[in-house]
């Protein structure tokens, strides 16, 4: 799937190897050497707030790595950022994006452990969706030779979060069971693959019916995302499950806690219902926040249950736990090298196609991860393209009807 | 400490070996073969509700083991039971007690895996504080030859709960830190010993100052239980701790959560403040319940925190998880055999001394576990014994003043 991106990436890599050094970077960019293309969010709102513009290219500060970006991950969280539906949103205009892969192009002072030309993946605290990114070295990781750039961009956020939730927050062991929503998405597939590394783990997953055929090998029991998953799980396992991973929030917190076996762990790691879910209006953020049932610790005591929250970005950028994450990345790369996990890339999109890509993830049309391929040229608009008028998160009416269109969304490979 | 009890136990064991078989059990009891001594709680309330009486001796049903009891564990929970301060209290009169050790005296039908004469420890759903106990075989575990009966009675509840909290609910690993209240009690000492089996774990503990000298080797940083432990921990570790084990409840839940590092786990496993704590009246149960701050899962998400409740008795007797507990007991016995853990027995008490024993635990006078030694004769009352008039949990006035007496409490070894 990601073949085109890789070949391009390798060409560029050779160029760097030939030219070497920080001073030659100008040969890599067409036009003004101090500018770069980037996706810019002009203000919080719908898709029309996004555009690709030229921006001043950043230079690495002390301890930072400058990366020539090849591919960027697109996450559900990016839709929430676009809408401003996050805690303490930063000021706009901003360049979105929290993860990318590419080639080290320059190093700030006192930046040990990397060399120019290294193939890397990285976390960035915004600013990932650009041709060049600078980020502190603690957030940069070398990638295996046979990992493509789109794979690497699909790897960091989803696999690190899935691993830490399953093995550090919860304690996944042989014979346990896990419920994951959006099992066909990038995170769902990371969870399913990591579960398969432990013997005899049962994975319950929800996904739109059209994805079931594609993901049925990775998920033990698949349910339509529109059915009552509590009843479906209980039909198969009346006792419930050991681990619930919830990216929906709202009333799903109570449902998830109710599904736990004794000693089971519920983990809230997102709130995608705030963007697209069953609620119909833009007021869903405030609604979801208050709809979450607060938990009485004495009830947890009576029932022997665990409730947790997990935010990888807060862990990295607010709570300074990059050293823990580094250990996890090393373990994950070992699993990748042992061919036990492999990121599933849904589709590659040019930066200029970011709106279509966002629409696709909003409509839950993806199977695996959506990737922005920085070197890809945009596909010409199709006759029925309605991106400029259909803006996820701004409509007052139900967006569910749009899902009929998802098979017609551009699917570029 | 437990020497006297052990010697007696061994004598009895030899008798069983000589006489063998179920039919000879009558030689083991003095007087009426179908009666036994037991502690009976006539109604919920103060110490005056407890007495030792003769009761009909139970016989094992199918799947049950009949145990000639040598020693019983006394836990803080037993004080809460006495007061009726538990969820869905059973009907009185009842025989309290949830754990004991002794010798298998008879087996119900279909009770495989044990033989008459086996030295065992067991969980019982009430009825432990008696000369004879019958309990399903799933709650009975053989003990090592060199584990004394008082040690065994001090082992099951505290070490199993501590192990499951540290290693299954939380995920204690090298270099982490743990806060435990009542570090000098049976549970606190079990936690401290299990922490010492993992390299480089820092244990913060609260305990009354007079215990500090005795327990200072097992706890890295000891605080007076009356100081503000939040401030004391933060002075030493501004970032907080990885695991908080809270047996106090009430406002300590918020304090504990506040002390957690990112990815840290708070576990509520008791609510001893309901019995003795800072609150002054019998209304403290209801108060504590409502004083517990309910937790918003979205806050856990923002802060990357985990909150859990743990009740071993619910796990065993309501939630049917004895097979999980069996695995833990096996691991703990390996640790015991490897001399890595050893229950700390505070003192041995005759059944007739149960009131004094309860007063001692109520006043937090104990260092390690209080044990009822079934074969021990009561020590004559001391001149200043005030048990009949000082009844823990019934007073309207503050009980803290009584702690001055704790050095004078009978301390029988």
TrEMBL record, chains A, B:
Domain of life: Eukaryota
Residue ranges of the region described as Disordered: 1-25, 378-413
Biased composition (Acidic residues): 391-401
Composition-biased stretches (Basic and acidic residues): 402-413
SUPFAM superfamilies: GroES-like, NAD(P)-binding Rossmann-fold domains
Keyword Amino-acid biosynthesis listed: no
Annotated PROSITE patterns: QOR_ZETA_CRYSTAL
Signal peptide: none
Annotated keywords: Oxidoreductase
Enoyl reductase (ER) domain span: 45-372
GO MF assignments: oxidoreductase activity; zinc ion binding
Family membership noted in the UniProt record: Belongs to the zinc-containing alcohol dehydrogenase family. Quinone oxidoreductase subfamily.
Listed name of the protein: Enoyl reductase (ER) domain-containing protein
Organism listed in the record: Acipenser oxyrinchus oxyrinchus
């Amino acid at each position: 799937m990601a073949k085109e991106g890789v070949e391009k990436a390798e060409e560029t890599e050779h160029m760097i190897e030939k030219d070497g050094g920080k001073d030659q970077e100008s040969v890599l960019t067409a036009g003004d050497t101090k500018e770069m293309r980037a996706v810019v969010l002009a203000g919080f709102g719908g898709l029309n707030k996004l555009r690709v513009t030229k921006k001043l290219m950043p230079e690495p500060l002390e301890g930072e790595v400058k990366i020539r970006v090849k591919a960027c991950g697109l996450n559900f969280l990016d839709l929430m950022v676009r809408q401003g539906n996050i805690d303490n949103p930063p000021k706009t205009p901003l360049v979105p994006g929290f993860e990318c892969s590419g080639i080290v192009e320059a190093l700030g002072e006192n930046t040990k452990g990397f060399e120019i030309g290294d193939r890397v993946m990285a976390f960035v605290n915004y600013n990932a969706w650009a041709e060049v990114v600078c980020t502190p070295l603690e957030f940069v990781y070398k990638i295996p030779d046979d990992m493509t750039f789109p794979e690497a961009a699909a790897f960091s956020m989803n696999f690190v979060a899935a691993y830490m939730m399953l093995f550090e927050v919860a304690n996944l062991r042989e014979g346990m069971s896990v419920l994951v929503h959006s099992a066909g998405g990038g995170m769902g597939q990371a969870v399913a693959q990591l579960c398969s590394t432990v013997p005899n783990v049962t994975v319950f997953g929800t996904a739109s019916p059209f994805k079931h055929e594609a993901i049925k090998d990775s998920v033990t029991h698949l349910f339509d995302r529109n059915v009552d998953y509590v009843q479906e799980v209980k039909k198969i396992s009346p006792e419930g499950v050991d681990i619930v991973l919830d990216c929906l929030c709202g009333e799903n917190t109570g449902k998830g806690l109710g599904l736990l076996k004794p000693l089971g762990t519920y983990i809230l790691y997102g709130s995608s219902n705030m963007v697209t879910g069953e609620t119909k209006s833009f007021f869903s953020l405030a609604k979801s926040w208050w709809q979450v049932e607060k938990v009485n610790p004495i009830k947890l005591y009576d029932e022997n249950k665990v409730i947790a929250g997990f935010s990888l970005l807060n862990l990295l950028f607010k709570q300074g736990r990059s050293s823990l994450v580094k250990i996890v990345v090393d373990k994950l790369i070992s699993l990748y090298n042992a061919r036990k996990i492999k990121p599933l890339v849904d589709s590659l999109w040019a930066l200029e196609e970011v709106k279509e890509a966002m629409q696709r993830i909003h409509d839950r049309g993806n199977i695996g991860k959506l990737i922005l391929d920085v070197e890809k040229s945009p596909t010409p608009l199709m006759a029925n393209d309605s991106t400029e008028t259909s803006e996820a998160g701004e409509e007052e009416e139900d967006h569910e009807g749009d899902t009929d269109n998802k098979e017609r969304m551009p699917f570029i490979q």
